[in-house]
């Protein structure tokens, strides 16, 4: 078993693209799975990992008094099973970054549910980017099911592949300065986070008729990003491989690991740039950075805080465009752009985005929420299985 002393640096080739194209339609083995069982503990622990304080998702007593009759899972709880679209196929030795997900949800997850997932390759594109020059975008589609084979969620996931040396040498982010705050600015962010529970709509029903286009949702803040945040997200997702378990993975995929000088030859994964600044900068990032699914889940929390317990999050999309590095604050914001009735559902579309303290949008996105209506002829919102958004396979 040969393990390099640093992440390998491989150039993207035509043969790699041809190989990736030949795999379209193939099924992937499930990633992990990490947490398959939804319990009061795993559901709450996931919320701890993303900082979500909605009692519907974390308190069995509060959930028992809700319309569901029990606590339910945060819509992004399937991330605890696996991260759809993550770099897992083709382009060996070429660095990968999670780049986005587009979710459609059908049913709530309840304690006692056991998740499974099928994932298949649906596309690959060649692009030229400012970050690393020649690059690839890979797409997969995943379906999350419960123990009754009922569809919980369908998601399109995509990642980008970049040559490590090219990304480092181009230096797109070399002039990004570390975050610096006054005590007053830090106090303002802290107070915003502490005040968030007051913004959670909860059992106070938000009706479709009361929403107007142009209405803003309440902004939530996450940060300044620290090692506690990124490690907490891993714990919330049940992730972690060490010692013999880690080495089994190294034997199967030696190109994904290396011996770290900073750990005196200890083995680390090429994605350790989320925690080691030296590796982050070696692959062209400005510094250690968050996990894309983590930021996506924050954006979902901004929407679920706003919509209340009687609504159903039907769609959530986030495109990860810029790095969110240690010390950055992320503000998750949104504006209602459309309200309409479709397939019997009273829906609103919300433009959402993650914005850092520099005013840069690091992740644009959108959400669709199924809201209850005061119209007595309209169906009562129970879940989203009866309403289809007819989203294309690659969107």
In words, what does this structure look like?
- The two termini are 41 Å apart.
- The longest helix has 16 residues.
- 22% of the residues lie in helices and 27% in strands.
- It has one domain: Thiol Ester Dehydrase, Chain A (Roll), CATH 3.10.129.
- The chain is an alpha+beta fold and 395 residues long.
- It is globular and about 65 Å long.
- The mean pLDDT is 94.
- Strand 4 and strand 5 form a beta hairpin.
Strand residue percentage: 25-35%
Q: What is the spatial order of strands in the main beta sheet?
A: 1-3-4-5-2-9-12-11-10-6
The name of the CATH topology is Thiol Ester Dehydrase, Chain A
CATH superfamily: Hotdog Thioesterase
Any descriptors?
two-stranded antiparallel ribbon, alpha+beta, 395 residues, 10-stranded antiparallel sheet, single chain, globular
